[in-house]
Amino acid sequence: QLTPSSFLRIGQLSNVDLNEDIHELETEVPRQRPNEIPHNEKLLSLKYESLDYDNSENQLFLEEERRINHAAFRTVEIKRWVICAMIGILTGLVACFIDIVVENLAGLKYRVVKDNIDKFTAKGGLSFSLLLWATLNASVVMVGSLIVAFIEPVAAGSGIPQIKCYLNGVKIPHVVRLKTLVIKVCGVILSVVGGLAVGKEGPMIHSGSVIAAGISQGRSTSLKRDFKIFEYFRRDTEKRDFVSAGAAAGVSAAFGAPVGGVLFSLEEGASFWNQFLTWRIFFASMISTFTLNSVLSVYHGNAWDLSSPGLINFGRFDSEKMGYTIQEIPIFIFMGVVGGILGALFNALNYWLTMFRIRYIHRPCLQVVEAMLVAAVTATVGFVMIYCSRDCQPIQGSSVAYPLQLFCADGEYNSMATAFFNTPEKSVVNLFHDPPGSYNPMTLGMFTLMYFFLACWTYGLTVSAGVFIPSLLIGAAWGRLFGISLSYLTKGSIWADPGKYALMGAAAQLGGIVRMTLSLTVIMMEATGNVTYGFPIMLVLMTAKIVGDYFVEGLYDMHIQLQSVPFLHWEAPVTSHSLTAREVMSTPVTCLRRIERVGTVVDILSDTSSNHNGFPVVESNPDTTQVAGLRGLILRSQLIVLLKHKVFVERANLNLVQRRLKLKDFRDAYPRFPPIQSIHVSQDERECMIDLSEFMNPSPYTVPQEASLPRVFKLFRALGLRHLVVVDNRNEVVGMVTRKDLARYRLGKEGLEELSLAQT
After folding, report:
1. I need a labelling partner for 294 at 20 to 30 A (CA). Which of 421, 601, 651, 713 fits?
2. Which CATH number, 1.10.357.10, 1.10.3080.10, 1.10.10.10, 1.10.1740.10, labels domain 81-300?
3. Which residue(s) pair with 219 in the sheet?
4. pLDDT (tens digit, 9 = 90+) per residue, 216-233?
């Protein structure tokens, strides 16, 4: 079940080290890239580190906190509100930028292609129009895919799995950099204009998070600019709270759903929550929606009419025309079941596809070629479907942006073209609101089938793109089909309005794919502007989640698992009470003495095989009869700052005062602490001594060896720890629990399974 045994060294952790033999040759031979990367989803990657959510309460920290008086605390609180307002405004503006650029570029593309098709329909030679459309799509997507594949691969996909991991406490490299934001925004514009089956809503969440992380630090490490503001917030604790506000602002800019944004942040993201945070996050979301609304209203020329709260606007659903009755509830529940099954199918297909991609399509150039292929195929499928469709509708009284006549009579347009020849957002709104009879059931059936596979193939490409809108579109198409067939069955009864069923189908499909319940209900309610539908939407989403979870997990969780991220869920696995901390912990632990030789510290930090990030500090007593009890915990980043500032004294005069460091020195090095290799320590300095007592955290969290796994898990998860020291009854360090030790245990099909750890 694993790769051949030559790859395995079964030790304390069975390390699957694929590069073991290659390391010796690395200096002379440039490494050949393998054609196939062996990938096993039963692995946890060791390349992901944890965030330090827990403040290190060392003497420096306590001194600084004691110096701050009440007025200073108030200014910090005001700064937090100011940052939240700025996050909201900037996220709203970024959303406006994306929206306006996409609208203009896509409009230009569709006009060019439409004129071309109209010209060639008259005189024959439509294959040229197909070529034009496919070439336009492929070239636009090529640019979008190139920047992602070669400049910033983290910007691929919707970014929601990455933000979920970040808020869970996993440090994903480069995820909240300015560069990622720029690539993300450009990539999203290009992939939507390139006609892929994607939406621009998912990436807004990632963009909001990057904006939040950047503003709250008051500087940009990419631009090498430090604005000397907000220095108090330069630590993971504060940064993470702001990132959850940014994610919420992104949701609310995308869907015009401020409350939905807060709930999204609560449900999908933040592991730590308090009431003040809720209120600040809501403030950020509200501001972001309002900014987007005002700017877009001015842009559309009606400055006083705030009518576009989000990037996607489902339009108003009137309760009078489209109420629902009690006897429709079972029908909605049935739609939820269908959505759950289809969602599970989508996820299973995407899982196999992603496994294939990880194994074979891992070179950037191949990824770009695949993206171009998908773009060309999407255009071709759309063209062939429009060409073969004989579904003609009268033009007058319909609100189609680019009516394609093709082979229809004068004054009519091809109704398949409204679905394919449009940005996905517009198509969703059309499916919700077009009057009954606008679509032929055959058209909808074919469209659903083709779009399902296209969207499934597109998610996971190396372009930045969301999965929200395609799933809504698939769902709306089959929901409308369902509504039409119902009204056939009931002889055109008044309650079977296809638009209402399109909405329920969209909810069911989206819920079946991403498995969000609470936030999605509220988002759909806010986007439709109708509270009456709250109950049926909730039922549909619950059913879709229950049915889908029976088969396979949600799309985002699946991608997190495929990337082998050590993600901690809310609870420990159900059957894990039999395990204790002694079985879970990593041993042996590298400990430091309270007063340690500099040479020892440098050697420990330079040791690549262990690569620990936290070191318990024990009492440094030459008298061996006494117990070396635990005195504190110090982090790799702190040690590096100490060595960089040369905070040590020669052995002879230990009573000399060391050079005083301020907390500011640690904050200035955050978040990119230099690697140990870049710090030069001379031979004489190696003999000096370093006193760790004022820098270590004197009160680290500890557990006894007998603690059960769920208990350890709760403590670790609720406090957002990075290191949990395991001690025996004499307070001696016996082991250390980190995120990987807990994330290893997962509930599989047969019960509790333990994953192995891999270096890759």
Report:
1. 421
2. 1.10.3080.10
3. 226
4. 887 777 777 777 777 788
